[in-house]
Specification:
Length: 295
């Protein structure tokens, strides 16, 4: 899949053809299963970074959840039948006692569902420590293309994010990375992101569709349901072996029923998100069943 082919997917290839191609890839690589993940906002607000689409830097900081609450939430997620759980913190990168608390929570939950973490930009030694503690996957979005990134963040660089994802692989963990669509980026930026994720050989791609938040500084773009499906199809066909997970902004997609799954989606995030409303597990289970898939 080259750049020209990816561009045609976003603009010209008939939707029925895209659905057939993506369904074949999905079926052969992932069967009829949909992977469910959930997160907890373990440390909220007071973020030092100026990511234009995010509210974390414009909210009052709250103390990190204590160890007991982190472990209890992991147990609850496991009991609910959700497949994987992630501890997420605000800030450029977690350090000190707070980092140690995440490692303690990981060590305490080895009998629960697989644990992921999203703690910002970390060094290789810290990532290895997380793996040794029991974290199996690290999530760190590239967010958009290297070209467009300075338009949405000035306090760190796109390359710092890319290096972090590369370090995740070196540390022996599974890498989850992706971005956010509808924040003023072009189709070319979306293709750049998909190709960068392929180059990094990430195991899981997380796609978010922008949901307005108070105080955000983005030139938001409305993405029609057809455009959403084309974006999904492009990421699926550029990265045929990666999991493809839809996180924030599923409202328009759900109006189209099972179509997002037939265009290559293999997982969804359920429950509360970071700073925007998510969806309830019962709703998502019903959506998956109606679409003819299983968890």
């Amino acid at each position: 899949m080259n750049r020209r082919e990816a561009s045609d997917i976003l603009t010209a290839v008939p939707l029925d053809e895209l659905s057939d191609r993506c369904s074949t890839i999905r079926s052969s690589g992932f069967g009829d299963k949909v992977d469910l993940c959930a997160i907890v906002n373990a440390k909220k607000g007071a973020c030092s970074e100026d990511c234009a689409f995010c509210a974390q830097s414009r909210t009052v900081g709250e103390p990190m959840l204590d160890l007991g609450k982190l472990v209890e939430t992991h147990r609850t997620i496991t009991d609910a039948g959700i497949h994987r759980f992630s501890l997420v913190t605000s800030g450029k990168g977690l350090a000190g006692d707070e980092f140690k608390r995440i490692c303690e929570a990981a060590s305490s939950g080895v009998d629960f569902c697989p644990l992921c973490a999203s703690l910002g930009i970390l060094g290789l030694d810290e990532l290895k420590e997380l793996k040794d503690a029991g974290v199996i996957r690290y999530h760190h979005n590239l967010e958009t293309s290297e070209y467009f990134f300075p338009s949405i963040c000035t306090t760190h660089t796109w390359n710092e994010r890319r290096i972090t994802v590369h370090r995740v692989k070196l540390a022996g963990m599974s890498a989850c990375s992706g971005g956010i669509m509808g924040i003023g980026e072009s189709d070319s930026d979306r293709i750049d992101l998909a190709l960068s994720l392929r180059e990094l050989d990430v195991e899981s791609i997380a796609l978010n569709f922008y949901m307005p938040v108070e105080g955000a500084r983005v030139n938001a773009e409305y993405l029609s349901p057809e455009k959403l499906l084309r974006i999904i199809a492009m990421f699926r066909l550029v990265n045929p072996t990666a999991e493809l997970r839809i996180c924030a902004g599923r409202t328009e997609l759900e109006m189209m029923g099972e179509k997002m799954f037939s265009f290559g989606v293999t997982g969804i995030m359920t429950g509360t998100l970071l700073t925007t409303e998510g969806s309830q597990l019962e709703h998502d289970l019903d959506l998956i069943e109606r679409a003819g898939f299983r968890t």
